[in-house]
Amino acid sequence: MADNRCAVLAAPVAAERSHGERLQRRRRLFQAAFFILFLSAPALDLLRFDLTEAQLWFLGQRWSLGIAAFQRGEATATETAIAIFVRGFIPGVLFVVAFMTVAWRYGRLYCGWLCPHFSSVEMLNDVLHRACGKLSLWDKATTPRAGREPKRRWWPLFALSCALLGFAWGITLLTYLLPPATVWGNLVHGTLTPNQARFIAIASTVFALEFAFARHLFCRFGCAVGLFQSLAWMANPRGMVMAFDRGRARDCRSCATADAPQGSACDAACPMRLRPRNVKRLMFSCVQCGRCGSECETSQGAQARAPLLQWTVGADALRETLKQRRQEQQEGR
Hints:
Blueprint: H1 2-40, E1 47-50, E2 55-58, E3 61-63, H2 67-71, H3 77-106, H4 109-113, H5 116-132, H6 155-175, H7 180-188, H8 194-213, H9 215-222, H10 224-234, E4 241-244, H11 265-269, H12 291-301, E5 309-312, H13 315-332
Antiparallel strand pairs: 1-2, 2-3, 4-5
Helix pairs in contact: 1-12, 3-10, 5-6, 6-7, 6-8
């Protein structure tokens, strides 16, 4: 009878574990697809602004505000003003409102699931950890993960990865401003203009240094897209949060996984180096990647227990926020 009961308990737990793993695989696929889109969008004319023609390209079409027609005398001032409002102002406002509405409810979902910079951050975190056992060059202590022993042979790969990612970002940004065929043709044939060569060199160097030394700092405070998402999310008490079951806090003592054999699996998993069990105001730069929840499922599932960390949104998130405030007030007394 006892064996049967254990089997019944283990079945849903195994499903929870597999759900967390599927969630992370799905997130990786989204990140990879968006990274490819980021690199190829200029070449496909999906989105770029051509400085040589002063022309915006969007979804393979020239996107004009009618200013050129006005300069040629083919449109009146009123027609041009209406075109600017309809084709420029309204789409811009709608995009910003839609983007910030998602951030208001779900937080920095774009950062954790799509942003090409953050996917680069996660990859570099893993390579650096293999080299020195840390997720940042500025960490004072190592982060145990999957029984890894730091090996110096990973240092050249980390430096090379930073350099290659910096170059990829530098040249991709240039193709958003100049015809991609021209840029890549000049690069392949060694005929870059002085300005093109200067832009690629400076941008590649800045991004390579940022990836090596300040990638987490940039994500937290240097990225305007991430910052405004965080501000919108923090202003909404019903926004999606990773709720922590504080009534079972003792279960965290036995929390360990293959990636975090010494415990605190959710802390070790967080690519932003946050503590997921903290209150919302201390999770300002959370990117909603869900890795902490997946690790918690794995750890607690191995002991036939429900996870302590779960995403909540709406009324459940509001109750979690109020609960956190009451706890802070009690601890402050």
